[in-house]
Amino acid sequence: MKILYNGIFCENGFVEEIKKGNGEIYPFAQQKFEKLILSGIKFNNFNEDVTVLSTRPVIRYPKNKKIIMKKKQSKENGININYLSFINLPILKQITIFFSIIKQILLWSKENKKEEKKVIIYGTNPLNIIPYLLLRKSKRYKIVSIVTEIDRLRLLEKRNIILKIKNYIYIKLSNIIEDRLDGYVLVCKNMNELINKRNKPYIVVEGMVTAENYDRNIQYMNKDNTIMYAGTLDKRYGINKLVEAFEKIKDNKYKLLIYGNGDYKQELIDKSKKNSSIIYGGVVSNNEIIQQEKKAKILINPRPSNEEFTRYSFPSKTLEYFSVGTVALITRLEGIPDEYFKYCYVFENEDEEGFIKAILSLINKPNEELENKAFEALNFVKKNKNNIVQTKKILDFVEKI
What we know:
Elements: E1 2-7, H1 12-22, H2 28-43, E2 50-54, E3 68-69, E4 72-76, E5 79-83, E6 86-87, H3 92-111, E7 117-122, H4 126-139, E8 141-147, H5 151-155, H6 161-177, E9 183-186, H7 191-195, E10 202-204, E11 226-230, H8 239-247, E12 255-259, H9 265-274, E13 278-282, H10 286-295, E14 298-301, H11 316-323, E15 327-330, E16 345-346, H12 352-363, H13 367-384, H14 387-400
Parallel strand pairs: 1-2, 1-7, 2-5, 7-8, 8-9, 9-10, 11-12, 11-14, 12-13, 14-15, 15-16
Antiparallel strand pairs: 3-6, 4-5
């Protein structure tokens, strides 16, 4: 079986180059997920059978000053990576990416003419999927999509009229395209209701953590008195409610440390200037985030459970929080399987009073209890959700399609 993988994975050198051009805008979560998948492919001895097409995630000119993105080839862990060429201008960007994908499909199909062929596409962007659909029958391959979010639930919230029109067209096109694939890898079972209307095969893989060795010695006495959140700073994710609840906790020895970007960013910065216990850390690398998460006492995700989009999502930070040896305090989202809630603490009420009560309860728990809970979570994801195990599930599924 030969696999053509379509995503945005970039080697570290490209990541740094793109971040300089994009400013704070970079899809860190997807980059991390794809890196884990490609590492898992190597561990499962599929690296010689996989070719990667990568569209570098640069924002359009003039926000990013680079106009011509040239085709480049390299190897990462023995996997062939082809960085697509395109012109980074409005409209031309989509057109040139489209034809770059077409060209690469034709080359890959010719090289593997006699082989069983499968395509894995990260996401359901119709502009990426259409080239594969057009050539599927003639080049005889099956298409599987890895779906980490439902675009229509996110895009319809835009208020700008031009963006609304653009996103409306995008969503209509997605509705036509996304259910014409041959299989789906979903991070949440409920997604199947929305995108798989033709009842094609699917599996659920919530995400993954690195299979690398981990430190089992968790000592809470050495941790900072820090409550931490890292992720999107949008009000719909409950970050404003978290900050407002923390302001009511009159205990100056604790700090609230927040990283990320979103519509609440400026308000958060203003609050941090007035209250030294609230710290905005900005947008930093995932490596730095991990180091801070390991030092913190509590990791929080305040995402509200009553929002429709949470029914169709599994927050990737759940796995990240569990993997660093720090207890997590999260809301009971429908998209998170029940097995996860045994390894963390949960907000029983999601109003301000409930937030305060849950935070104070954890702050006052004995270190030994927190250490045990953190270790149980760490052990759970490292054994059951590591990238060797999870990628093997994906590869086995793709092979059967």
